Amino acid sequence: MARTNNVTELIITGLFQDPEVQKVCFVLFLPVYLATVLGNGLIVVTVGISKSLRSPMYIFLSSLSVVEICYSSTVVPKVITDLLAKVKTVSLKGCLAQKFFFHFLGVAEILLLVVMAYDHYVAICKPLHYMNIMSLQVCHMLVAGSWLGGLIHFIIQILITIPLPFCGPNVIDHYFCDLQPLFKLACTDIFLESITVMANSGLIALCSFLVLVTSYVIILVNLRNHSAEGRRKALSTCASHITVVILFFGPAIFLYMRPSSTFTEDKLVAIFYTIITPMLNPIIYTLRTSEVKNAMRKLWVQKNLEIE
Fold it and tell me: Strand 171-172 and strand 9-12: pairing?
C-alpha cells in the first residue's frame, strides 16, 4: 500500500470524559508536575554545586533527574492543558514527535537505572577496586551510553512508524500519543510492527529488569560478609533505587509486554510512569540519602547567609 496520510490532526479522548473530574485532575496534576521539575532540578543543582557529592552515585542521580525533567515534560504539560479543553487535539507530526521523545527518554532512564545498579554492585561487592573501576571517565561513558541507547531506540521507533499510512479515523484512545493507540489508527495491517514494538520496547524493559534483579540478588548474597552497620548502610542506599525500579518497571512491563487493549485501567497504569514516578524519584532519594539531605541543608544555610 502506498503511504497516504489524509489525517493531519488527531483527537485525544483523554483520561476521563466528565468535565468536573477533569478539573479535579488538573488541580492534582499541575502541582505534581511543578514538584517534578522543582524536585529534580534541585537535585541537579545540589549535585552540581556541592563538593561533597562528587562520587559516581551522585553523578548518575543528577543525570537521572535531568532525564526525569525532560521525560515528564514530553507528556504532562500537554495533558494538563488538555484537561481544560473541550476538544483535545494534536497534529499528527506533534503526536509522532511526542511518542518518539517519550520513548527515547524512557529507554535512557531504563539504562541509567541499570547503570546505577552496576554502581551499587561495584561499591558493595568490589569496594577495594571501586575508584579504579568507576573512574570519572567511566561514569561519563556510562551516562553517554544510556543516552545513546535511548537514541538507538528512538531511531528504531522512527523507522517503524514513519512509513505507516494514516487515513482515518483520527481519534486516539489515550491521554497522550503512545505506540499501541497510535498504531490502531494506521489503515494497514500492523501485525509485524506490533510484534517489533513488543520486542523492542517490552523486551528492553523486561531484560533490564531481570539484570537489575540479578544484580541485587548478588549484592544481597555478598552483604552476608559485611558488618551489621555495613549491611544497614548498603541496604538503605539500595532501597531507594529498588523502590524507583519497581515504580517504573512494573507499569511499563504490564503495558508493553502484552497485546494492546482499550481498558481504562491501561490509562490509569500509565499515569504512574508518566506523571507520578518522575515526581517520587527526588523524594525517595533525598529522604533515604543523608548525604543529599545534608548537602541541601548546607546550600540553604549558605544562601540565607549570603542574603543576610
Answer: parallel
Task: Spell 117-155 as b/e; 16+ CB within 10 A means b.
Answer: bbbbbbbbbeeeebeeebeeeebeebbeebbebbeebbe
Dihedral of CA 119/68/49/42: which sign?
negative
261: helix, strand or coil: coil
- Count the neighbouring beta carbons within 10 Å of the beta carbon of residue 175: 24
Task: Report d(CA 43, CA 283) in Å as an integer.
Answer: 10
Give the tens place of pLDDT for each residue, 237-263: 677 778 888 877 777 777 766 655 555
Which parts of the chain are beta strand (E)? 9-12, 89-91, 171-172
Q: For the CA atoms of the chain, what is the radius of gyration?
A: 21
CA distance 110 to 248: 8
Helices 19-49 and 290-307, packing angle to 10 deg:
80
Region of 168 please: left (phi>0), alpha (psi -120 to 50) or beta.
left
Asked whether the beta carbons of 252 and 273 are under 8 A apart, the reply is yes
pLDDT in tens, 155-189: 888 888 888 888 878 888 888 888 778 888 888 88
For 6, phi then psi, to 5°, come to -85, -15
Residue count (the chain): 308
Burial class (CB in 10 A: 0-12, 13-18, 19+), 295: buried
User: Cell 542506599 sits at which residue?
Assistant: 237
